[in-house]
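Late entry, AHG complex.
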Amino acid sequence: MTANTTFPKMARKNQTLGEFIIENQSEFMYSSGELSKLINAIRLAAKVVNHEVNKAGLVDILGTAGDTNVQGEDQQKLDVLANEKFIQTLKNREIVCGIASEEEDHYISINSQDEKHQNKYVVLIDPLDGSSNIDVNVSVGTIFSIYRRVTPTGTPVTMEDFLQAGNRQVAAGYIIYGTSTMLVYTTGHGVNGFTLNPAIGTFYLSHPNMTFPETGKIYSVNEGNYIHFPQGVKDYIKYCQMEEGDRPYTSRYIGSLVSDFHRNMIKGGIYMYPKSSVAQAGKLRLLYECNPMAFLAEQANGKASDGEGRILDIQPTELHQRVPFFCGSRKMVEKAEEFMRKAGKP
Ligand code: AHG
Ligand code: MN
Ligand code: MN
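Prediction complete; structure with ligand written out below:
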């Protein structure tokens, strides 16, 4: 599949996310309004989590994790808190039939109060991505992926509803809690980015039709693991560092997939989390990290690979499955794949 670059008809600068969702609803494949309501719920949860993330530095003042705060509420680690906020928001609004999360061992089945389980969508989330960056005031994010269930509506969800190949996603996106907070998402009609005006709590369309430059000059990888990487990855890293043509490239690695991806999409670059001799499938999770980012990448004219083939074509077998990940500007990902092909199996 080539990325669909159809630009939303109704995109206007300064349009709010709420307006954009309503005005582009007819673009959705099955436009019953349900997906719009779901994205609205994610927008709401994003604002709540943003508020919590912004206060992170105050935790030591208000009480540490495990303590109670001034209101007598339990202080929680932010990734647990973000998980609860997203799940609560989606549950309360009764708009999904199931949720899977990095923070939950099992998927959650949601029975709507009308007892008919009529909702059609399941959501998979990484509620707080890059959470090791929280303590040092560096950008973190949330990643979400949305599918239509494959089992009949009116029955509880099963594992089959969650273990769908990424090419069946109906929407995916991320929130980046950075110098400004943005929500970036796709419903298969290109990628649009919305920036939060914190004073009034409204997201505005600030980055319409985002695309990866065809190639770039940034490579993002945890080079501390270099010694454990397969030969093809080592060779590609050396290629990035070689003085020739537009190289050497610049190395930039935040350690927060959302932030590294976001920067690379704007500036041009490649993100890599390869397999290694100590982690055979790499680190990142297929269902709520790699698939949503791969859908966004393809919708933004970029590419996402496990080193050999397309991420979105992998048939998942487990909820928390890991997969090697190479994602970003199309030509850079192709070049990395070429090096891995040449080096052969490690
Ligand atoms: P999470 O915080 O959800 O566990 O994800 C962290 C991920 C990803 O965001 C990041 O790029 C990567 O782990 C960093 O891993 P290393 O510290 O091994 O480089
Ligand atoms: Mn993560
Ligand atoms: Mn996480």
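The radius of gyration is 20 Å. Will revisit in the morning.
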